[in-house]
Every structure is written in C-alpha cells, then in structure tokens.
Amino acid sequence: MADFTMTKGDDGVAIITWDVPGKSMNVMRFDGMRELNALIDEALADDSVKGIVITSGKEGSFAGGMDLTQLAVIRDQAGDDPAAALFDFTMQGHQMLRKIELAGMDPKTKKGGKPIAAALPGTAAGIGLELPLACHRIFAANNPKARIGLPEILVGLFPGGGGTTRLVRKLGAMAAAPLLLEGKMMTPEKAKAAGVIDEVVDDPVAAAREWVLNAKDSDLVKPWDAKGYKMPGGAPYHPAGFMTFVGANVMVNGKTKGAYPAPKALLSAVYEGALVDFDTALRIEARWFTNLLMNPSSSAMVRSLFVNKEALEKGAVRPAGIPDQRVKKLGVLGAGMMGAGIALVSAQAGIEVVLIDRDQQSADRGKAYTEAYLDKGMKRGKVTAEKKEAMLNLITATPDLERLEGCDLIIEAVFEDPAVKADMTRKVEAIIPEDCIFASNTSTLPITELAKASKRPDQFIGIHFFSPVEKMALVEIIKGRETGDRAVAKALDYVRQIRKTSIVVNDARFFYANRCIIPYINEGLRMVTEGVKMPLIDHAAEQLGFPVGPIQLNDETSIDLGAKIARATKAAMGDAYPESPADDLIFWMEEIGRLGRKAKAGFFEYDEKGKRLGYWHGIEEKYPLAAEQPSLREVQDRLMFAQVLEAVRALEEGVLMDIREGDVGAILGWGFAPWSGGPFSWLDIVGAAYAAERCDQLEAKYGERFKCPALLREMAEKGQTFYGRFGEQAKAA
User: Fold this and answer.
1) What is the pLDDT of residue 384?
2) Distance CA 534, CA 547 (A)
3) Average pLDDT, integer, range 199-203
4) What letter does residue 544 receive in the DSSP assignment?
5) Which of 8, 348, 400, 662 is most open to solvent, judged by the fewest CB atoms within 10 Å of its CB?
C-alpha cells in the first residue's frame, strides 16, 4: 500500500491523501517522498487538474515528522562519503517542496502556476509542517487537541526540510525563534495568530478546495519570490535585524552553555541564509543540517530521545504473552507530595483513585494538590470547569483502608521506613483482591526485602516516580527477586496510561537512577571539601549540559535528605560502606541547620521568598579555598565519570538489562547531558579506549571510585562500542 494516493475530482481539484499504512500518525519515508513527488508531477502535467489539496487520511492528525531512522540508514550505508549522501537526500526534499511552491508557474512572470493548498485535520509537526509551509495556503481544522510546530530541536536537530528558511522569511527571525529554538507547539488558533498558518476552519478540505478553485496568480507567489521582498524585522545587515541576531546568539548560549550543537547550527543556517537569495538559503540550510546529522551528538540524541524512547513507550521490554493490564482502579497509600502527585497524574489519565492517609485531613490535603494544579490550569485557559470537576470526582480521599477493595493496582508511597512499609503491606493485602498488584514507590530500599512482608511476592514490584511527579517524564520499574511477569506488565501498562516513559531494572540498592546521581552529587561535595570553588563546580556541570550543578542540586533536594540516605545506607552496608568526606560535609551542614532551599539556608544564601542570592561563603571557614584551582576539564571529567562508571557497573551486575533504558533513563530521570544521548552513548562518542585510559588517570589521582570496570576495559582492548556490542541485543529484546 502507498503512503500517498491521489483522486481527481470533476471540478478539477486533485486531492493527495497522506496515509501511511500501519501508523497511527503519518511519517515521511523514502517511498513516500518518491510517491508524493510523482503525484505532484502528474497533477502539474495534467491539464484537467486546476489545483491540488494535500491532506491526511489519519483522523485528528496530518503528520508527525520525518522517519528519523531512515536518515541513519542513509548515513550508515553511504560508504566513504555519508555527508554527501545526506546532503543529496536533503536537497532532493528541498527540490520537491520547491516544485510545490512554484507549482509550474513561469519563472519570470510568476504566472500560470496551479494553486496547492494544505488541509490539516490535526497535529502537524516537523516535515508535517514544512510541507504545508511550501504550499500556497494552509487550512487547519478547528481542533483544540491539535498541535502545530517544529519540535526537531528537542531531539538534537533543527528543521532541515526548508522549515527553517521558510519560517524565518515568513515571520522574521525574532517571531520564528520560539518555534525553531524552543520547539514550541501551538494550537491551530495560536498558530494562525502567529502567522504560521492561514485559516482555522471546521472542514479544512472543503475550505482548501474552494480556495484552490478561486485562487489568482498573485495568491501563489510567496513573499520571498516577489520583487522587492524584505525580511520581517530586518536582515542581519539591517540595524534592527543585526540586534535580533546578536540577541538570539546571547539567548541560545545563555540557555545551552554551548553544550548543544543543534541551536548553533540552526542560528548559523538562519544567519547565513538571510544574507542570500532563497534558493541559496535552502542549500545553506541543507549543508548545516548535514553537518548536524554527521555530529555524533545529534545521532546520539536522535537515537535516545526519539528511536529508543519511542521503542520503550511501545513496549520494547514488556513481557511477551501477558494480556492487557491497564489499570481501572488505583489505590495510593500516602497522600504526601509523592502520593498526591501520583493521584494527580492517574486521575488525568481517567483512572479511578483511592487516596489513603492516616486521617481525613491529611487525605484531603493530598487531594487538594490536584485541585490547586487544576486551578492553575484554569487560570491559563488550559482546563475547563467540567474537566476539573470530572478529575476531582475520580479521586476519593479517605483514611479508610476498606475503600481499597476492588483495586487492581496499589502504589505505596508512605514514609521511607521498612517497618512502616511492611505494616502497610500486610494491612492492605488483607483487603485487596488476590490478583491485585502491589507496588512500592521507594527511591532507595531494595524491593526484594520489602516484598518479604507480602504473601504474594510474585505480585510485588517497585514503581519509582521522580519528583515532582506531574513534571518528570520517567518512571523506574524495579523487579524484585520473585517479581513475576504479570506485575512487570501491569507496571508498564500503567506507566503508559499516564503517558510517561518507563525503564525496567533489577533490584539493587538505589536501583539505577539514584545509583548514578548520588556519585555525581558526592563528587561535587568532595571537591568542596578539597577547597574547589563552588561556582566552578556547578558551572562546570552546566557547561556539560546538566540542568543544575551538584551543589545547587543538594540545596534543591534538601541537605537533611542526603544525610538520612547516607546514614541509612551506612547502617545497611556496615563495614562495606565506603567512608566519604562528602558525608562529613553533609552531616555538618545538617548540624548547623543549613538544610537547603526549604530552610532558606544551605550552600546558597536566600532571601525571604526563597530566591537564591549567591553561594554561602561561610563554608570556606571550615573548608578553605585551595590556592590552586583545578581546570574546568578536570572538574567536568570527575563529575562525568562518577556517573558513567556507575552506569557501566549497573550493566555489568545485571541491574540494568538494556542499554537503551540506561541512556533514556539517565536523560529523563536526572537530566544527564542530553546532548550526549546518555552515559553509554557518551562513552561511545569518546571511545572505550580513551575512557579506560582516563579512568586510570583519575583513579591514580583520586582513588578507587574511578577504577575502570572490567567490562569497559575489555571493550577498550577489543575496540568495541556499547551500541556495537549490545545494540543488536537491545533490538532483539
């Protein structure tokens, strides 16, 4: 079956319908490009065709973008010159869209062309908007659920199908910036108000057909093809335009700290393209797009944030042969911040929730969290009164455990104490159905130990949410030693219901995410005790692409929480616990009452409203600054290797079962340098041989925590990469 088909009406309008078989949303593929190109040629050559309408056969959507896996195929199969192959492919796309744009008109008079309109029934993203931008008129359905935009920057790319050049010439660099540099997706009404599309109508195909039949030659000429065109807001050589580009450069570097190649490539394509004619600008865009596709960072980001993430969300690691396990009635034990957040996202997904706490007042407070969240949505016009009422009606707040009867999933989010959790497990299992899955939201306690309190350990699992629940995209699912496949399937299906991404790991203290993030924090604290300046530590992390540095992260998560985790871990591990000066620092900060942002005193000073004022210099009295400060690279390597080595050890020990989950989980779970694609992708970028050599240097200087794992050493000796060695295994899983 074809991706594109065409029907010709008696009125002379040819309808080209995009409908990729087996896909819920259209994506552009090699075959589809060839089909569309051939149909455009056919329609332009047919004298009976007066005009063309391009639409979608998918209900509620036009297209979701390019099939990015096919770009990787071109690069990997191109032989000695992959850049040339990628550039040629990109230019073929430009030539096809330019053919649509010029529509057979006389190149000098700009007359005689056939009108081509796009009719969007819903969401149009990436090439799904770049194609309409080449058409002469864009009609979108009055569909409030639809989103229109160019989100490529979010996966390490920029719009390389002409969208960058056309949008800047249509709106001006400043107005185009939110769509290009932030990947902002708009409702049809907002897209029209911004000038991205032309009309919002109830029946876009009918409206497009009518426009095509009445369009004049002048309606077909794009502003940049008209004589005397001037870029909105000014070109770079215009005083106003010059300041726009200076400001954009500052803004991008301020946000990305120079860690991401895509925004830099995008700005270069826009700036250089704005200095030349339109067709030359398209070639410049194609060259920068090719440059980006050849950058290992972009390849890694696309693989982790698009290919791997999508595979995990579609059940790549779900146990086979288990029927659908979607949750109908959820019990949440504990109405604190985590429990309240779990109740909120579950009600958003239409799941009935019973929210339990020790008394009615505490339970009501947990439900009020959802109400406050919805009230904010109503103020922004994103939530209706009806939606608010419906969601709140899904949540029953109560201290009565008997109300859990009939639940098919329980998520326990009570105090992080094994005895308290065990008591709740026994009480609740006496009430819930025998086939109900019981999950603990613990962030540190081993699931196998917690499952000892259960009569049904095969139905006991860990579902670890990150805080705040409603904002964080990742959920970590932990298999205990006796956890069965149905429990895993239940957890995965539930996470999919609430529209988050999950990873599945085997049981171990701290699981995967916390296991890697704690060394990052501790390495930063160690440096403080060595007299390294705190701004150097945090800024080094930010320039690596981390959202916050380890010192600031300590303040945000609360210092006493770190102290509690350290004490609990030490008690559990006994003599095996590695002593660390980081613990001494945390215990001292706890002792003097500097507990972080919540106490308005921590590693930072704060004003009365909790706003950071700067680093607290009092710490230098206990830990004087070193006379000689380390280099930026030295600090960055310590912070980076502290995390990636733990990821490798987790893979070695079987805690992590799939490197795709290791990369996706790192980026979504704690913001591990997204430009790198995750810890395993980063190791593949720098190479196992270099990583092993750097481990030896760091171990010699700073200690055994930087010892090269045996797996990494073996891969270095064999010249292997993680995706080369484990990639096929991941695909087969």
Assistant:
1) 92
2) 16
3) 97
4) T
5) 400
| pLDDT tens digits for range 442-470 | 988 899 999 999 999 999 999 999 989 99
Summarised one tens digit per residue, pLDDT across range 120-165 is: 999 999 999 999 999 999 999 999 899 999 999 998 999 999 999 9
* Alpha-carbon torsion (340, 344, 349, 354), positive or negative: positive
Which residues partner with 4 through β-bridges? Answer: 18
Residue 528, phi-psi category: left (phi > 0), alpha (psi -120 to 50), beta (remainder):
alpha
Q: Following DSSP, what letter does each residue of 346-404 receive, concatenated?
A: HHHTT-EEEEE-SSHHHHHHHHHHHHHHHHHHHHTTSS-HHHHHHHHHHEEEES-GGGG
Q: Look at residue 63 and give its three-state secondary structure.
A: strand
Q: In what order do the strands lie in the sheet with 148-149?
A: 61-63, 123-125, 148-149, 185-186
Spatial neighbors of 722 by CB under 8 A, at least 6 apart, are 659, 680, 681, 683, 684, 715
The neighbouring-strand residues paired with 399 are none
Q: Is the dihedral of CA 383, 384, 387, 388 positive or negative?
A: positive
Dist. CA 324–CA 488, nearest whole Å:
12
Backbone angles phi, psi at 176, to 5 degrees: -80, -20
Distance CA 273, CA 169 (A): 10
Residues across the chain: 733
Whether 231 contacts 172, CB under 8 Å: yes
Q: Helices marked H in 480-623 — which ranges?
A: 485-497, 513-529, 534-543, 550-557, 559-573, 581-591, 619-622
H helix count then E strand count, the chain: 32, 20
Q: Which helix (H) or strand (E) holds 78?
A: none
| Amino acid present at 379 | K
Q: Cα–Cα distance between 453 and 231 in angstroms, integer?
A: 69
Matching residue, tokens 């620092």: 585
Q: How far apart are CA 496 and CA 473, in angstroms?
A: 11
Do the beta carbons of residue 383 and residue 374 sit within 8 Å? Answer: yes
Cβ neighbors of 561 (< 8 A, separation 6 or more) are none
* CA 16 vs CA 19, 55, 205, 257: distances in Å: 10, 6, 11, 44
Tokens 């396990």 -> residue: 325
Q: Mind giving me the DSSP string for 226-293? A: STT---TT--TTSHHHHHHHHHHHHHHHHHHTT--HHHHHHHHHHHHHTTS-HHHHHHHHHHHHHHHH
Contact 440, 467 (CB under 8 A): no
